[in-house]
Sequence to fold (360 residues):
Amino acid sequence: MTGHGKLILVTGGAGYVGSHTIVLLLTENYQVVVVDNLSNSVKGNGNLPESLERVQALTGCNVKYYDCSLEDKEALKRVFSENKIDAVIHFAALKAVGESCLIPLTYYRNNVGGSVNLLEVMKDFGVKKIVFSSSATVYGDPQYLPIKEDHPTGQGCTNPYGKTKFFVEEILKDLWKSDQEWGIILLRYFNPVGAHHSGLIGEDPLGIPNNLMPYIAQVAIGKRECLNVFGSDYETSDGTGVRDYIHIEDLASGHLSALGKLLGVGTTPQCYKGWRAYNLGTGEGHSVLEVISAFEKASQKTIKYKLVERRLGDVPASYADATRAREELEWTAKKNLLDMCSDMWRWQSKNPCGFHQESK
Ligand code: UFG
Fold:
């Protein structure tokens, strides 16, 4: 029980990564306050988002929730004045790559502007510990594989979404340079997939999924006809794109390790002060065809697919060197591709409409 009742503010806590992380936080005896504006989640029957209703059901613990956007600084100040927050895990962001090219200003206002608001309020209230949800997208087209944290960032970010992650990383770096009392950990996610093993919470994309695993799951359940495999002529083992898929529960546990380092709880006795990035990935790459085949095995369904043109902006292969997280956070991913597919399938088959009651 490493949390000792410390109070963690989780921005974007109703979302996919946030909700899974909160389950672990509550299990580890942290208390949680969530701010989320429900821009990408479903309202439940009570006062909470449906994902958080289920988190409470899963853990038997309460979550305090504020329906609040990071763009509303006054509302954020109220959250901080009503709660004695020890640290922040900052997930809240818009995250659709394609959409970000169509409405870049909305992405910059929300992801960058919202983060600056949050940091200003944190500073005003003397809360100087933050775990930031970043992405392997900051590496752009990798110059080498597996990717280490000191790989150049920002250079190959081809879309506004990716740039917002890079910009916020840089803003956090400047903040630390200005005041070394801050403890700032950036977690660069590779490809989070799967769902909680209970099948109660998972990813619930709105509309047509952009990402591979949710799309496959919807083909398996009969909601979509056929998967388009984007590109079959990459220089990879079978010509399809290679990614480092990581089980969402492993990803969530990476946040607990990072938080432990900031708060000096768990295995790390001292509070970390500084700015440090960690890759969260398994270190292993899998091709699209391998993912399809693993999902077929997990679901006992045939996934219909066709090979089509490459998708604009995709890199051939991306996978992590996760040594730094292992050495400094004592964290490693434990679940394999079949676990990811099995848990994804359990969630999808138990909740064919995600968190909605009926078809969207
Ligand atoms: N793919 C398909 N068909 C689909 C969807 C994806 O073949 O319908 C392929 C892609 O071409 C790629 C692989 O499956 O080779 C994975 O694609 P995803 O869209 O699932 O994931 P990406 O690696 O493109 O992007 C993810 C996140 C981004 C994040 C990036 C970081 O979605 O938010 O990883 O590297 F920025």
Remarks:
- Residues 7-202+245-283+319-333 form a domain with the Rossmann fold fold (CATH 3.40.50.720).
- The chain is about 40% helix and 15% strand.
- The radius of gyration is 19 Å.
- The pocket of UFG is lined by residues 95, 97, 135-137, 162, 191, 210-212, 215, 227-231, 241, 243, 288, 311, 314, 318 (CB under 6 Å).
